[in-house]
Specification:
This is Mitochondrial protein SCO1. With about 300 residues, the chain is of the alpha+beta class. Helix content is about 35%, strand content about 15%.
Length: about 300
């Protein structure tokens, strides 16, 4: 039997919620007051007698990072669109656009130009290295000859810290030497225009018996003012030709007034400022082609290089 007076409050769980109500434990028999644990299941409304004693759980405070939804359109920049139509158009076109395509093409062109230049530079380097043995150049070497002013000069003085372009010929040549010296003059002008005065053009005679300093000076003045003429004794010229691998057929003992022709190799020998052989240019090269090759080698040079104003 349940008593009418409520003597002691207590807490329990009803429908998964903490509920405070008065207890009739002292006036109700033990079997009637047994509390059986129940699973959390949905229950109906509380009895009217208990509803007044139920305390509602406090509401959760709002998240500090939450923000209200905004209908203001974002700026149209870097893939953020003002309208749904623009977004759908971008979705149809995929990740590629005119800007991306232009960037891709530009990058490809720059890479192609870089690797083409590097390929040419490596080929020129291999060509130069192929003419060198360990510690000694296979083409070229030291010499001391007489210039067109009658002064004795060594090869280092002739180069004077610059590249040199060496040609072997003779002043009585009827056709080949004048043609090649005309081409050499064009090469000199083109290189000077592109790289500055960093090249010393040198003419070495293969006919020392007739090509005196005075004769050479008058002969070279007809082609280019920058040309340096060199001559010497028969043995000196023969030694220089041997070092440069130049063939010539001038006989040793000649009587004064004899008329003869001289067979010789027809090449321009490009030497670097240290006196090392770089490349040989033949008749198959035009003046423009030869000037481009010379300019490319000058551009590849990383050592000291004297430049005249």
């Amino acid at each position: 039997m349940l008593a009418t007076s409520i003597t002691r409050p207590f807490l329990t769980t009803v429908g998964g919620r903490r509920v405070a109500f008065a207890s009739a434990c002292e006036c109700i028999s033990a079997p009637a007051l047994r509390l059986v644990p129940r699973a959390r299941t949905s229950v109906g409304p509380l009895p009217r007698a208990l509803a007044s004693h139920v305390t509602a759980a406090p509401a959760k405070p709002p998240r500090p990072n939450a923000r209200a939804f905004s209908t203001t359109p974002r700026l149209h920049r870097w893939g953020i669109f003002k309208t749904v139509e623009e977004a759908e158009a971008r979705h149809k076109s995929g990740p590629f656009s005119f800007r991306a395509g232009a960037l891709f093409v530009t990058t490809g062109v720059l890479l192609y130009g870089y690797f083409t230049y590097e390929k040419g530079r490596m080929e020129r380097q291999r060509s130069s290295d192929s003419h060198k043995s360990v510690g000694k150049a296979r083409v070229g070497g030291e010499f001391t000859l007489t210039n067109q002013d009658g002064q004795r000069v060594a090869d280092a003085e002739v180069r004077d810290g610059k590249f040199s372009l060496v040609y072997f010929g003779f002043t009585h040549c009827p056709d080949i030497c004048p043609e090649e010296l005309d081409k050499m003059a064009l090469m000199i002008d083109k290189v000077f225009e592109k790289q500055g005065k960093v090249l010393r053009p040198v003419f070495i005679t293969c006919d020392p018996a007739r090509d005196t300093p005075k004769v050479i000076k008058e002969y070279l003045a007809e082609f280019h003012a920058a040309l340096i003429g060199l001559t010497g004794t028969y043995d000196e010229i023969k030694d220089v030709c041997r070092k440069y691998r130049v063939y010539f057929s001038t006989p040793r003992d000649l009587k004064e007034g004899m008329d003869y022709l001289v067979d010789h190799s027809i090449y321009f020998y490009l030497m670097d400022p240290d006196g090392n052989f770089v490349e040989a240019l033949g008749r198959q090269h035009t003046a423009q082609q030869a000037a481009d090759i010379i300019s490319a080698h000058i551009g590849d040079w990383r050592g000291p290089l004297k430049r005249d104003a």
